Amino acid sequence: MAQDYYRQQSQEVANELGTSLSQGLTASQVKQRREKYGANSLAGKKKVSLWQRFLAQFKDFMIIVLIIAALLSGFVAQEWTDAAIIMIVVLLNAILGVFQEARSEEAINALKKMATPSAHVRRNGQVEEIPSTELVPGDVVLLEAGDVVPADLRLTSVNSLKVEESALTGESVPVDKQAGQLEEEQVALADQDNMAFANTNVTYGRAEGIVTQTGMNTEVGKIATLLNNTDETDTPLKQNLNQLGKTLTIMILVICAIVFAVGFFTKQGTEPTDKLAIDMFLVAVSLAVAAIPEGLPAIVTIILALGTQVMAKHKSIVRKLPAVETLGATDVICSDKTGTLTQNKMTVERIYYAGQNHQAKQAITANNPALLAMLLANDTKMSDEQKLLGDPTETALVQYALDHQINVQELLAQHRRVQEVPFDSERKLMSTVNQDGDHFLVAVKGAPDQLLKRVTKIEENGQIVPITAAQKQAILAANQTMAEQALRVLGLAYKEVAQPYDEPSTNNVEQELAFAGLVGMIDPERPEAKAAIKEAKQAGIRTIMITGDFQVTAQAIAQRLGIIRPGQDQQVITGAQLDELSDDYLHEHVGDYSVYARVSPEHKVRIVKAWQSQGKIVAMTGDGVNDAPSLKQADIGIGMGITGTEVSKGASDMILADDNFATIVEAVKQGRKVFSNIQKAILYLMSCNVGEVLTVFMMTMLGWDILAPVQLLWINLVTDTLPAIALGLEPVEKGIMNRRPRGKKSTFFSGGVASSIIYQGILEGILVLTTYQLGLNFGPHLGNSSLQHGDALTMAFLTLGLIQLFHAFNSKYIHRSIFTKQTFANKWFNWAILISAVVMAAVELPFMTKFFDVTELNGVQWLIVLLAGVCMIVIVEIVKFCERRLGEK
Predict the structure, then answer these.
(1) Measuring CA to CA, which residue among 888, 394, 282 is closest to residue 880?
(2) Helix (H) or strand (E) holding 492
(3) Pairing of strands 332-336, 618-622
(4) How many degrees, rounded to 5, is the angle at CA 28 between CA 24 and CA 34?
(5) Rounded CA gap, 345 and 98, in Å?
(6) Is 10 helix (H, G, I), strand (E, B) or coil?
(7) What percent of the chain has pLDDT over 90?
(8) pLDDT tens sequence across 763-789
(9) Could you tell me if 518 and 491 are in contact, meaning their C-beta atoms sit under 8 angstroms apart?
(10) Across-strand partners of 381?
């Protein structure tokens, strides 16, 4: 168990780890510890070979059913063409799966790449530069601005150190560090200000520290362990396809049993028993093969792939195909605050001077004392590309001036810095002495409470006068108001002196100051996030904020975004409070909380699991290293493409190219469309297959002529490909975002699809059989039994093919009427039907009739075939109308 080093004095830590603060470790100590602890690097999962990944694709239940069908079709029914087609579909599906899946070692590899290449360490009394992988516990490491912390450190000496930890803790601004001992027993990671953690960034100052943990024992290593140990959840799509496979298997077995039993017992005496048994078994197998929509996995994959292309145009990059459909089923979006709901950029929002509050947009002049103080007491640098470099709080102050068209560089040139008193975490102030013509201007910024202790004057009507108690009280009240709005407040002060100081210090520079103002900053919400959260709410999707930031900040941002309403404090909970809740209680009451503040990576995973225990489909957004485990645990992990770390991207199912929360809502809409279109394709394919099975089954049972294998194969080839794929290109249905999430228990057969498959399949079979009977009684070959039966079978064959194309129009909407302008909006569908109809009718060409064993039909016979197709549309539309009327009641 790791020690709470933050609770110990520096020397106690050094003694426990057997090191010297002044000399560091000896060479022999380093050698022993390297053998004991190993390299300071992260371990990943055992790599899965390409062959293992390929074989894993065949574990899917639907795929197993298809393989069995292919074997039966080939070896038993001798339908080798069918068998070949099924196996090609299976193999293509497996190959696509291998290339689409992203494995967890990508996230681990990204973590490894983040490691700093070198570290400055004190060993044998000398400072050396070594590869960070060679660090061991007990090493004394030296840090300065720009360094990446190479391991977890207990800081022993600090000089104005600030560390940016947002990728690990979610804290939106750099953390001030100190070397003192912390008294509390349980301190959240983000509050351990005497520790520095691996892979965080030093933005300001210098420090020394003792390595307490390396490799997988660091805080970032714990995240790597979570990634390794997190099980990937089955997507709803995969669960639905598995359920579909099981349903099909049961249906196929029932069909086989019924056909075999009925045929065997009704035809007793017509042929030897053993031969009859074999014949009926072959018939049963043929029907079973006909019942399987062998193209379904490929069509689902194509629809998903087409969905990824559409989503890419909307800035959503899908890394795993099933994620497209999973988004549409999302019940809860657990969103990180920093960089996701907010801009991850400190911004001035309010400024208080001359006794009044001012919005950041209000004009301000270059000679305003508050503006001068915030620019002069500031270490921000500007790159050649005009990019601001430095502490985010300070760069926000400079950006505020630039937004008001202040020539910052000219102003700084006029007020050249000659002396400074650097910031430190004890007095919480920073001061500079600047040339200002023939005198010097002192600029001070820092914590308002500390600043006011040193303020004795204030400007009134252009005159510097002593500050009154009432004025100080007004300043404190303004500070309190800003703080309650979750603004980070800095105080600003100044004074004029005749000459620089001999020895500048807080005791002379930061005394007898004149108050200039207060400035309030915040990491603001993204402008589009509020509308996106509102739209998600209308779609029945709940947004949960999870952040490492302080409770007051999280609550204020959540209220501004509409996640919670003012006064709903009970919906905000901290990581420390979360630790006090049992898993059972959290699982039962997780819906009570909308905002989680000051949380760790383990908390995020726990929150996601709690929602999943409620049967909810959870999406998790994030951009930091700390988000990676929860991104992987969630049903769908959504990484940020711009601000996101490679770790968070590697653990995600989908990446937002524009880091725009509103893009998630658009992706949800596309996901719902994909599910709806897959449902339409399944309704179409399955009802057509039911129609085929019923037709062949009844023809067999009634002793009629039976459609030839080549005819059934041609129908499947023509009708099961282009029309089904084109249904996957249907546009978003009107009102799709006003529906509630369909829920985890929902399947492709939910929402009336199952009943529609059954009655529409039966209707199709009845119309085909009716056409066959009409063919026996109409046509030019009446009186010639052989030719008339040929005509009837040809009419049944063409009806079975063409009626499915008519039925494709029915399948556009499961419940809505097709008699709308939108019906013909999908040009791909229109072309698919036209091409398929031409190809289907081509069997009537003179040179094709012999191959398909059909006769050439006359006009009346063609009219009967076409009328059967029209009847399919009319009858289904009547049923839909009745369903809608009953639904209204």
Answers:
(1) 888
(2) strand 488-497
(3) parallel
(4) 85
(5) 39
(6) helix
(7) 38
(8) 999 999 999 999 888 777 666 667 788
(9) yes
(10) 389
Distance from C-alpha of 673 to C-alpha of 311, rounded to nearest angstrom: 11
DSSP class of residue 183 equals -
Torsion over CA: 856, 860, 864, 867 (sign) = positive
* Contact between residue 493 and residue 455 where contact means Cβ atoms under 8 Å apart: yes
Phi, psi (5° rounding) for residue 427?
-90, -20
What does residue 359 show for φ and ψ, rounded to 5 degrees? -70, 155
Each residue of 347-365: pLDDT tens digit? 999 999 999 999 999 999 9
Question: Residue 819: what pLDDT?
Answer: 87
**Pairing between β-strand 429-436 and β-strand 417-421 as defined by DSSP bridges:** antiparallel
The SS3 call for residue 392 is: helix
Dihedral sign for Cα atoms in the order 236, 237, 240, 242:
negative
Least confidently predicted of 73-82, 584-593, 621-630: 73-82
Please state, as a whole number, how many other Cβ atoms lie within 10 Å of the Cβ of residue 255.
19
Catalytic residues, which ones?
336
More confident residue, 22 or 72: 22
Annotate 420-460 with DSSP letters as a single string. Answer: EE---TTT-EEEEEEEETTEEEEEEEE-HHHHHTTEEEEEE
In angstroms and rounded to an integer, the radius of gyration of the C-alpha atoms of the chain is 36
Q: Other C-beta atoms within 10 Å of 24: how many?
A: 22
Give start and end residues of each alpha helix (H) in 104-235. 105-114, 166-169, 219-229
Q: How far apart are CA 684 and CA 677, in angstroms?
A: 10
pLDDT in tens, 210-239: 999 998 888 888 877 766 665 555 556 666
Task: Give the model confidence (pLDDT) of 727-764 as tens digits.
Answer: 888 888 888 888 888 877 777 788 888 899 999 999 99
Q: Range with the lowest mean pLDDT among 96-110, 275-289, 462-476, 850-864?
A: 96-110
**Residue 418 contacts residue 435 (beta carbons within 8 Å):** yes
pLDDT at position 241, please?
67
Contacts of 397 (CB under 8 A, 6+ apart): 348, 374, 375, 378, 380, 519, 521
| Maximum separation of any 2 CA atoms in the chain, in Å | 126
Q: Which of 37-51, 347-361, 846-860 has the lowest mean pLDDT?
A: 37-51
Angle between helices 273-291 and 236-266 (to 10 degrees): 150
| DSSP per residue, 30-48 | HHHHHHHH--SS---PPPP
Instruction: Flag whether pLDDT at 497 surpasses 70.
Output: yes
> What does the alpha-carbon distance between residue 419 and residue 547 come to, in Å, rounded to a whole number?
39
- Taking alpha carbons only, the member of 736, 611, 700 closest to residue 285 is 700
- In this structure, are residues 799 and 869 in contact, taking their beta carbons and an 8 Å threshold? yes
Q: How far apart (Å, rounded) are the C-alpha atoms in residues 704 and 456?
A: 108
pLDDT at 90: 67
Query: Contacts from 456-463 at CB under 8 Å and sequence distance 24+?
Result: 456/512, 456/513, 456/514, 457/495, 457/512, 457/513, 457/514, 457/515, 458/514, 458/515, 459/354, 459/369, 459/514, 459/515, 459/516
Which sign, positive or negative, has the C-alpha torsion 345, 346, 350, 354?
A: negative
What span, in angstroms and rounded, lies between the C-alpha atoms of 501 and 491?
23
Starting at the edge strand found earlier in the chain, the sheet holding 316-318 runs 316-318, 654-656, 636-640, 618-622, 332-336, 542-546, 595-597, 572-574
Evaluate whether 124 touches 27 at the Cβ level (below 8 Å): yes
**In angstroms, rounded to a whole number, what is the distance separating the alpha carbons of residues 401 and 404?**
5
